Amino acid sequence: MIRTLAAATLLFAAIATPALADHAVIRGLDKRTGHAQDYSLTIGRAARIGSLEVVARACQKAAPEEQPEVRIYVEVFDHPPARAGEESARAEIFHGWLFASSPGLNGLAGMARMPFGVLPPILAAIGLSCAVKWRNKAGWMAGVSTGVMMAICFGVGISLYSFVYGPNTPTFVGVDLAHFVVAYGAAGAILGAWK
Fold first, then answer.
1. Could you tell me the residue range of the domain that residue 167 belongs to?
2. CA 64, CA 158: separation in Å to the nearest integer?
3. Which of 67, 75, 111, 186 is the 20 to 30 A CA-CA neighbour of 33?
4. What is the pTM of this model?
5. How many whole angstroms separate alpha carbon 115 and alpha carbon 175?
6. Looking at per-residue confidence, does 20 or 157 come out higher?
């Protein structure tokens, strides 16, 4: 009974928290040409979009029982053209949240910096989705093997304890051991691939 309540509590806590991702997908619209293009941004890394440098700092997706919403926190820097042999100055033109459900709420409008002032907005961006990409296959496999080894160690200890001190039948102990192997293997895979 206690194990069931503990598992249900952990499952509820995992489901209730917003999903954090390591990639964000935004759609940029060039207002001059009307061309829209999707960009996949790695959280924490800068990506060049024309003369703009976009850094996604966070991407959150609402829990399944809530109203669907994707929030992406971005910082946008402009790199205006520089003279030959010089580096262009990096100027921040926007930082804030992009909302998938309300694209008009964000103030992102890429401003072309010119010597005589600022041109009208030429770029609009909409946050589309968050993603977790499992690229770290070596970490994934190492996590699975570590999780399974931990499950077997804990499971054997618990099995011996229940044989000595408890009236449990071997069938129930085997089922508990199988649950340990699956749970620890899955947790190891997730944590190993997350690195």
1. 135-194
2. 35
3. 75
4. 0.54
5. 72
6. 157
